[in-house]
Amino acid sequence: MKMESLRELFVEELKDLYSAENQILKALPKMVKAASSKELKEGFEEHLEQTKGHVERLEQIFEDLDESPKGKKCKGMEGLLEEGKEWMEEDAGPEVMDAGLIAAAQHVEHYEMAGYGCVRTYAELLGNKRAAQILQKTLDEEKQTDSKLTNLASKINVEAEKAA
Q: Is the pTM of this model over 0.85?
């Protein structure tokens, strides 16, 4: 498919994020199960609920655009989640496992923040204020999740180092 407009790129990138969010919905319950820290488990569970909202917001934007969210597989997220899956299969102590899970989750968050930042900017350039506001809300939540993970890491990484 030849892309000839920013709108077409906008829709393609939204489809990529839609695929990514749906992949995350499948991965987060496994991360909850693999985590040993109560705070980390709760954080992953909270983000699972948030991610459901992200999918709903994207569906709302697609409806407004009269476009289908289907038809694209986010290979970037697929790779990041595969790395996280490989990590969960490692033979690691609970503190080290949690530290690795945080690192994997932050890789995912940073990918999402980059994607949402781009599509939010495209929406602004296209004059789609409603989509821009919706996407900004999701971007803000992704940043908050990343910040929470950083705060958890400051404690869990120290515990992992002491466990050695």
A: yes
